[in-house]
Specification:
Helices cover 53% and strands 11% of the residues. The strands form 2 sheets. A 6-stranded mixed sheet has the order 6-7-8-3-9-10, sandwiched between helices. A 4-stranded antiparallel sheet has the order 2-1-4-5. By secondary structure, the protein is an alpha/beta fold. A hairpin with a 2-residue loop joins strand 4 and strand 5. It has 2 domains: 386 residues, 3-Layer(aba) Sandwich (Rossmann fold); 271 residues, no CATH class. The longest helix has 41 residues. The structure holds adenosine-5'-triphosphate. Adenosine-5'-triphosphate binds next to strand 1, strand 2 and helix 3. Adenosine-5'-triphosphate (ATP) binds next to strand 1, strand 2 and helix 3. InterPro entries: AAA+_ATPase, ABC2_TM, ABC_transporter-like_ATP-bd, ABC_transporter-like_CS, ABCG_transporters, P-loop_NTPase. One of its GO terms (molecular function) is ATP hydrolysis activity. This is ATP-binding cassette sub- G member 2.
Length: 676
């Protein structure tokens, strides 16, 4: 009943039953999944023409597109439990953020959700997208008259969040092309067709000038703020969604850039007949004039929905006239805001607006009966069932194609990150110089015993710290990108994880192998091929454990700050219980288990046994008793309690366990949370 708006009363787009026989569907028959466009035969690039993506992967004739179904929401309410507010029984109270909100958006429309801060704009957008927290959602939301299906909905819609999450070291073109390659079905399109589509999106978003620029970040200069936002939008558009949601797309942009962006969105909506719904704070006159419809919210309820001019006429009829030359957006905010100082007066006014809109919507509804009842118009269009036909595939590519694309993208990002590469290489050589010259050519005298043990303890600590620390700072940020791309159904967790693990492990292994090899000879450890190999193997396994452990922490916590607080704390614990600082026999039983979890301890013990077993020392420089063999040293430090091979075996187990554990945590924590 309350889905009516003045746009309906104007009859701007009558809904007509859709005849399925008039829809020409182009479904290329060759099935294969590919990434390298140049290596491929072209199947049907034209079928992905930008002007046709509304039905994602189907060709639809213009008149059928015009008849396509709408997005409708009816009596939406959303309640959350607020832990700190208690009722008379001491139970947490629930708070209603939205109540009785109804509305609709038609294909090709640009719809702006407006209201003062706290009015419920973002909450409504989240209800419509389905990306909700733990609250309770009531009401109905339909696309083509059918309730959203969680499986197909994530591909039928796209959500551009307020803050952008993009790979800094990819160019604009690469960002959009990877998005297309990952999101569009390989069963239906060749890589070439997908790339052509991405390039078309790039052009339509007027990004041609910036196509070869890197996205950039705080460290490296990249595209401008407006271009960055357009790339974020383009990334979603390449998936050819039917509905595009945007949360405050103009925030942080100057007025000209905002205007250009909204012009883009308007043109996009018109050209593709896509529904575009956005929240917007304080649009300029030009921006608000471009919106086909505004949804005005205050205190979690609708005050008006319809074209701007109709809204102005509606409020004028209630005694609130927009002064001449005043921006309607500012006027709406003025009359919809509830200020603390004039709370009672403002609340009464807003309630009057709620009531007036309810009555208007009911009248509108009656006029439109029976065709506009919430279910009937849409049932007529559901015959097409495009959403289900086109968006229901679990993933667009097979596992190997996905893994290859994600690896390619991740390697580009790693190898182009000059600052990090230079820092890592410098760090490796500084460590070689410091450690190598401090522990240079230790010899076999008595003082070399302490120095040897010191080096064999310091090196694993060093390796663990310098490897794990960068994982803690980079992984949570990439996880944000992954969560967003997974919400759009772009790929599996396993392929992302494989790419991330390889691009983290391989560089770290290279740095470690180079440093460990040089140091082995600089320090003067036993020149024996077998021992040298075990030294490298132990170091490699420790690097694996450090990366895996970094993944465990960063996939379990939501922010870099938390990861950085927890990570070093645990590593210091590993260090304390590694067996050098306190003898295992002196650790209380309640703490002793920590010793058996310490990868640093196992690496230290394996290194010590590898180096000291069978080694003879001279008594040169002895003060008091002379320790003549390495085996005696192992006994003094209790470093042979767990055998060398068992230490190596446990390092293998820790690698497998932590890599799997991180994967499990990531899988659970990255499950797209859609509430329908
Ligand atoms: N999970 C939550 N628990 C409790 N209150 C919430 C929760 N989420 C939102 N709110 C409250 O609901 C109201 C509407 O929030 P919402 O973010 O939708 O407002 P908004 O109109 O988007 O505001 P802004 O323009 O400032 O972003 C606010 O008062 C907010 O504090």
């Amino acid at each position: 009943m309350s889905t009516a708006s003045s746009s309906d009363t104007k009859g701007s787009r009558p809904e007509q039953p859709l005849r399925l026989d008039s829809v020409s569907v182009t479904m290329p028959s060759i099935k294969h999944s590919v990434a390298n466009a140049d290596a491929l035969p072209v199947k049907d690039t034209s079928s992905l023409s930008l002007s046709l993506p509304i039905y994602n992967e189907q060709r639809v004739t213009p008149e059928n597109i015009a008849n396509a179904g709408s997005l409708r929401w009816k009596d939406i309410s959303y309640d959350v439990v607020v832990a700190k507010d208690k009722d008379e029984h001491g139970k947490p109270k629930s708070r209603t953020l939205l109540s009785g909100v109804s509305g609709q958006a038609q294909p090709g429309e640009l719809v702006a959700i407006m209201g003062s801060s706290g009015a419920g704009k973002t909450t409504l957008l989240n209800c419509l997208t389905g990306r909700l927290g733990t609250g309770t959602l009531a009401g109905t939301i339909t696309l083509d008259g059918k309730p959203r299906d969680p499986k197909s909905w994530k591909r039928a819609m796209a959500f551009v969040e307020q803050d952008d999450a993009l790979y800094a070291n990819l160019t604009v073109t690469e960002t959009l092309r990877y998005a297309a390659l990952l999101r569009l079905s390989s069963k239906k399109y060749t890589a070439k067709a997908k790339i052509a589509h991405a390039d078309e999106v790039l052009e339509s978003l007027r990004l041609t000038k910036a196509k070869d620029s890197y996205i950039g970040d705080g460290l490296t200069r990249g595209v401008s703020g407006g271009e960055r936002k357009r790339v974020s939008i383009g990334q979603e558009l390449v998936g050819a969604p039917r509905v595009l949601f945007l949360d405050e797309p103009t925030s942080g942009l100057d007025s000209n850039t905002s205007l250009a962006l909204i012009e883009n969105l308007k043109a996009e909506a018109e050209k593709t007949r896509r529904i575009v719904v956005m929240t917007i704070h304080q649009p300029s006159f030009e921006v608000i004039s471009m919106c086909d419809k505004v949804i005005l919210l205050s205190a979690g309820s609708t005050c008006y929905q319809g074209p701007v001019d109709d809204a102005l006429a509606h409020f004028a009829s209630l005694g609130y006239t927009c002064p001449p030359r005043k921006n309607p957006a500012d006027f709406f905010l003025d009359i919809l805001t509830i200020n603390a100082a004039t709370h009672a007066e403002d609340t009464a006014r807003v309630q009057k607006f709620h009531q007036a809109y309810r009555e208007l919507a009911e009248r509108d509804q009656e006029k439109r009966e029976p065709s506009s009842s919430p279910s009937s118009p849409v049932q007529s269009t559901t015959q097409l069932q495009t959403t289900e036909v086109n968006h229901d595939a679990e993933f667009s590519n097979n596992w190997f194609t996905e893994a290859r694309l994600l690896n390619e993208r991740a390697w580009k990002d790693v190898l182009r990150n000059r600052a990090v590469l230079i820092a890592d290489i410098t760090r490796t050589f500084v460590l070689i110089i410091i450690m190598g010259f401090v522990f240079f050519r230790l010899g076999k005298g008595q003082p070399s015993i302490q120095s040897r043990v010191g080096f064999l303890f310091m090196w694993p600590i060093n390796q663990f710290f310098v490897t794990m620390q960068p994982v803690l700072t980079t992984f949570p940020l990439e996880r944000v990108i992954m969560l967003r791309e997974r919400s759009a159904g772009s790929y599996r967790v396993s392929t992302f994880y494989t790419a991330k693990a390889l691009t983290t492990l391989i560089p770290n292994l290279i740095y470690s192998m180079v440093a460990s090899s040089i140091l082995y000879w600089m320090v003067g450890l036993t020149p024996d091929a077998g021992k040298f190999f075990i030294w490298l193997l132990t170091n490699a396994l420790e690097i694996g454990a450090a990366v895996a452990f970094g993944f465990v922490i960063s996939s379990a916590v939501p922010t870099v700050q938390l990861a950085m607080a927890i990570g070093p704390l645990i590593v210091v614990t590993f260090l304390i219980f590694a067996g050098q600082l306190i003898a295992t026999t002196q650790i209380g039983w309640w703490f002793r288990w920590l010793h058996y979890l310490s990868p640093i301890g196992y690496a230290y013990s394996a290194h010590a046994q590898n180096e000291l077993a069978g080694l003879d020392f001279t008594c040169e420089g002895a003060v008091g008793a002379c320790t003549q063999t390495g085996d005696q040293v192992l006994q003094i430090y209790a470093l042979d309690v767990v055998s060398k091979w068992l230490c190596i075996g446990v390092l293998v187990i820790l690698n497998v366990w932590w890599f799997l554990m991180a994967y499990g945590i990531l899988r659970v924590s990255s499950k797209p949370k859609t509430k329908m």
